[in-house]
């Protein structure tokens, strides 16, 4: 498949002012016009790694990704009825745990008894920050009840530079941005992504989004419609934002996206992405 890479390096990977994102400049190739550094992110800890099937979003999975060399870990968060922030994808417990029903109806103590795959506890976000102090987390706010507790947790643990937060809900994202007062990198909502796709220039979209978008975290395509193109990468970089692509599990697609100049790849197959980045001289070995 031919990939449009024409003039993709016209606008360099921007410096955003957020340590979470600007660390890309310290990755192998990060200051090279020819290769570009890239942030490698383990989606739910590497949910489809052959050694982790059935253990997504567990402390075991996140430790596994960290042991492979991943320093950027992706998770979703929900809140219990008493405000504990849990690293968990679904609103309901049914799919991956030994319990059923909405997670939001549980207390923190009740949630501690839930087991993923019959053996792994549902981790609290605070636990992940404590037990993996060298890791950074890409967080998807999945419930309105998690907004205030997550902002409070980041304040209490002084973890603002260790996270990037996004949401499919503009309302949740706006509430989180107000609560954290610009101290945390945030990715674009779907409405904001649409502005990037339809804007005539990076400057125009930066004005339209009031400079609040530090990263676009998007799928490569939506159905037959391409989302990530060389033009989108140029426009995002001109607006001072990164482009991260989810969820990329095919090595050939990883290569094509790297050729487009994206700044981050989010994958379930942590083994395969590492192989691709090692082969291209873009893997940062701890």
Architecture overview:
Helix content is 33%, strand content 17%. The protein is α/β, with parallel strands linked by helices. It has one domain: Phosphatidylinositol (PI) phosphodiesterase (TIM Barrel, Alpha-Beta Barrel), CATH 3.20.20.190. Strands 1, 2, 3, 6, 7, 8, 9, 12 and 13 form a 9-stranded mixed β-sheet that branches. Strands 4-5 form a two-stranded antiparallel sheet. Strands 10-11 form a two-stranded antiparallel sheet. The chain is globular, with a radius of gyration of 18 Å.
Descriptors for this entry?
11 helices, globular, 33% helix, nine-stranded mixed β-sheet, TIM Barrel, 286 residues, two-stranded antiparallel ribbon, 13 strands, alpha/beta
Question: What's the arrangement of secondary structure elements?
Answer:
Elements: H1 19-22, E1 39-43, H2 59-68, E2 72-79, E3 85-87, H3 108-112, E4 115-116, E5 120-121, H4 125-131, E6 136-141, H5 147-157, E7 163-166, H6 170-180, E8 185-186, H7 190-198, H8 202-208, E9 215-219, E10 221-222, E11 225-226, H9 230-238, E12 242-246, H10 251-260, E13 264-267, H11 270-279
Helix pairs in contact: 5-6
Helix content: 25-40%
Q: Strand portion, in percent?
A: 15-25%
The CATH class, by name, is Alpha Beta
By DSSP, the count of extended strands is 13
Predict the CATH topology. Answer: TIM Barrel
Order of helices and strands: HEHEEHEEHEHEHEHHEEEHEHEH
Number of domains: 1
* Anisotropy-based shape: globular
Flag low-confidence runs: 1-7
Helix count? 11
Question: Biggest sheet, in brief?
Answer: 9 strands, mixed
Question: What is the oligomeric state here?
Answer: single chain
Radius of gyration, taken over Cα atoms and rounded to an integer in Å: 18 Å
Indicate the CATH architecture.
Alpha-Beta Barrel
């Amino acid at each position: 498949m031919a990939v449009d890479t024409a003039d993709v390096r016209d606008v360099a990977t921007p410096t955003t002012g957020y340590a979470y994102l600007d660390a890309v400049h310290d990755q192998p190739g990060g200051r090279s016009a020819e290769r570009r550094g890239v942030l490698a992110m383990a989606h739910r800890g590497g949910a489809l790694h052959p050694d982790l099937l059935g253990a997504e979003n567990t402390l075991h999975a996140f430790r596994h990704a960290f042991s492979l060399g991943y320093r950027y870990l992706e998770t979703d968060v929900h809140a219990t009825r008493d405000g504990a922030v849990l690293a968990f994808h679904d609103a309901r417990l049914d799919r991956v745990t030994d319990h059923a029903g909405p997670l939001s109806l549980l207390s923190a103590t009740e949630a501690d008894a839930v087991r993923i795959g019959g053996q792994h506890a549902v981790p609290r976000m605070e636990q992940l920050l404590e037990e993996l102090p060298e890791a950074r987390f890409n967080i998807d706010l999945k419930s309105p009840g998690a907004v205030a507790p997550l902002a409070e947790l980041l304040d209490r643990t002084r973890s603002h530079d260790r996270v990037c937060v996004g949401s499919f809900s503009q309302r949740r994202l706006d509430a989180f941005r107000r609560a954290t007062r610009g101290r945390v990198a945030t990715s674009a909502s779907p409405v904001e992504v649409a502005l990037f796709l339809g804007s005539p220039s990076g400057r125009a979209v930066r004005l339209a989004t009031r400079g609040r978008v530090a990263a676009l975290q998007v799928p490569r395509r939506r159905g037959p419609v391409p989302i990530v193109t060389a033009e989108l990468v140029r426009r995002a970089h001109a607006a001072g934002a990164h482009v991260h692509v989810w969820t990329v599990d095919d090595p050939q697609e990883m290569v094509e996206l790297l050729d487009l100049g994206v700044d981050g790849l989010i994958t379930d197959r942590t083994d395969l992405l590492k192989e691709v980045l090692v082969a291209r001289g873009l893997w940062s070995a701890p």
